[in-house]
Amino acid sequence: MTRPALHGFFSVLDEVLTGSDCYPLHQPEFQGNEWIYVKDCLDTGWVSSVGSYVDRFEQGLQSYTGMRHAIASVNGTAALHTCLLLCDVQPGDEVLLPTFTFVATANAVRYCAADPHLVDISPATLGVDPIKLAAYLDSHTRQDNAVCINRHTGRPIRALIVMHAFGHPAEMDQLQQLCEQHNLALIEDAAEALGSFYRGRHVGHWGRVTALSFNGNKIITTGGGGAILTNNEDLAKKARHITTTAKLPHAWEFVHDEVGYNYRLPNLNAALGCAQLELLPRFVGQKRQLASRYQQLFAGSALGHLVTEPADTHSNYWLNCFVLEPQYAGLRDQILEQCHERHILARPAWELMHRLPMYQACPRMNLSHAEQLQATLISLPSSPVLGAVA
Ligand SMILES: *Cc1c(COP(=O)(O)O)cnc(C)c1O
User: Fold this and answer.
1) For 96, phi and psi rounded to 5 degrees?
2) CB-based contact 188:205 (threshold 8 Å)
3) Whose CA is nearest to atom 10 of ligand 1?
C-alpha cells in the first residue's frame, strides 16, 4: 500500500517539475521593468529612504489592495512590530497569535516586551480557529474597563494577530466579531497573502492594521521589504512617523519627539517593488494554475490531499501544501529526504511556536489541530514559472 502510494506521489512531482535541475519552494522572477527602475535609482542617485519609487510603490499597493494607506518598511518583521506599537501593545501585555506561524509573528510581540499567547488553527483554513478561540476567550478571560484580561495571569490581552497561512485567508468575519466582543485589536499578518481575497476584498480590510512582506521568497520581492496597511488615517500618520525615527518635519533641524525606528524601505528596494507589482496579477494567475494542476494530479492519492482555498476566498496559493493522512505521518521525513535527493526542496511546516525554547513557557490553549497538521504537512515547489509551462 505504502510503496505504490509513494510511487504515485513522486510521479506527480516528476510530471509537474520539469525543465530545471533544482526546484526551490519559491523562486523570484524578474522579467519586467526591474532593471530599468533599479538603474534609474543609480543614475539619479536616489537610492536611500527618500525617493519617488517609495511613493509609487505605496500607491501601487493601495490601488491593488483597495486599502487607503500603505507604508513601506524594511521588512515584514519590522512592519509587524510597527503594527503592534500602533495597537498600543505595552510591556507585560499578552498578544494572541497562532502557534502555527513563522517565528517573526511571535518575535515582533517580544520586541514590545509583551508575551505571545498561543492559539490553535482551524484545519480547514490553517488560520486562527474562531470557534475554538470563542470558547477559550469565554472561559479564560474577563473584561475590566473594556480591557480583555487573562484570568490566570491577570495581564491584559491587547490584540489578536491572525496569519493567512500559505496565502489562504482566515475566517475574518468571525474573527473580527470576536475581537469586537472582547475588546481586542485585530492585526493581520498578511506576509504570505498579497494577492489573496476574502469575500471579494483583499486581505487587510478586517484588521486595524496589517503587515505585508516582500522577502525574497514571497509572491513579489523587493530583496527585503514589507509594508503596513491600514484604512485609518491617524494610524497611517503614526506609522510613517515612528518608522522614520519619529523626526519632526523641518528643512534642517534634527528634532525627534519619541523613540522612533529606522524602518523605512529604501528607494532602491522600492524600485524593484514597483516592477514586481506590475507582474503580480500574472504571478497570481500562474500560481493558481499550478495549484489546480497539482490538485488534478494528486486527486485520489491514498497518501493524503492538498490544501485548497477556503470557502469564500480567492487565494494567491503562495505555497502548495500536501497533507499526509494521519496513518502516514511517519513517512513525512522519508518523503522530504527523497525530495531533497532529487533536488526538490520541499519543506515541512514551521516548528510550532510553543515548541521553540524562547516561547515554550508562553500561555496557550489546547493546540491539537496545529500539532496534527505540523506532523503531516509538506510544502511543495510553487514558483510562478511552474504554472506557466502547463
Ligand atoms: C515572511 C513572513 C514574515 C516576516 O517577513 P520578513 O520580511 O521576512 O521580515 C512574517 N510573518 C510571516 C507569516 C511570514 O511568512
Assistant:
1) -75, 135
2) no
3) 104
Rounded distance from Cα 357 to ligand 1 centre (Å): 20
The residue whose CA is least distant from atom 2 of ligand 1 is 191
- C-alpha span between 169 and 92 (Å, rounded): 30
Measure the N-to-C terminal CA separation of the chain; round to a whole number of Å. 30
With a 6 Å cutoff on the Cβ, whether 120 touches ligand 1 is no
> Domain tally for the chain?
2
Domain that holds residue 194: 34-276
Of 276, 294, 313, which marks where a domain is finished?
Answer: 276
**Which residue has its alpha carbon closest to ligand 1 atom 14?**
191
Same domain, 219 and 296: no
Residue 209 CB–ligand 1 contact under 6 Å: no
Q: How far apart are CA 153 and CA 150, in angstroms?
A: 6
* C-beta 212 within 6 A of ligand 1: no
Q: Give residue-wise pLDDT tens across range 45-92.
A: 887 777 899 999 999 999 999 999 999 999 999 999 999 999 999 999
Most informative mutation of 82, 105, 161, 203 for ligand 1 (most atoms within 8 A of CB): 105
Cα of 27 from ligand 1 centre, angstroms: 16
Q: In whole angstroms, what is the distance from residue 245 CA to residue 107 CA? A: 21
Last residue of a domain, one of 207, 241, 276: 276
Listed residue (69, 90, 313) closest to 185, CA to CA = 90
Task: Record the pTM.
Answer: 0.97
